[in-house]
Design goal:
The protein is built from no helices and eleven strands. With 123 residues, it is mainly beta.
């Protein structure tokens, strides 16, 4: 099993910055891709940024150029540096990990989610 714990959310004024952290524990060798999702009030959860174990990244169009995802495989952590925040960035941010395990000769994929951390950007 893998557990994810987020930290770093809070209240910030528009134009400000926050850094989210996510610490993974448990069977961390099974973790493949990691990322951050968010859910704004009344909206579906959406992918913000993701990063592979090798360091390749993806950013949603809405955050590209403002957010930076990074990862430390040695400490099993993933980070999201959020700059130039706007009110539309408000929401609950969830850390996500994809696990890959083997059963016999078959790869099995599963997902793990953190409990979420609230980010509020005031105008």
């Amino acid at each position: 099993q893998v557990q994810l714990v987020e930290s770093g959310g809070g209240l910030v004024q528009a134009g400000g910055s926050l850094r989210l952290s996510c610490a993974a524990s448990g069977d961390t060798f099974s973790i493949n891709d990691m990322g951050w999702y968010r859910r704004a009030s009344g909206k579906q959860r959406e992918l913000v940024s993701s990063i592979t174990r090798g360091g390749s990244t993806f950013d949603a169009d809405s955050v590209r150029g403002r957010f930076t995802i990074s990862r430390d495989n040695a400490s099993n952590a993933v980070y999201l540096q959020m700059n130039t925040l706007i009110p539309e960035d408000t929401g609950v941010y969830y850390c996500h990990a994809q696990r890959v395990t083997m059963t016999g000769l078959r790869y099995e994929y599963s997902e793990v989610w953190g409990q979420g951390t609230l980010v509020t950007v005031s105008s």
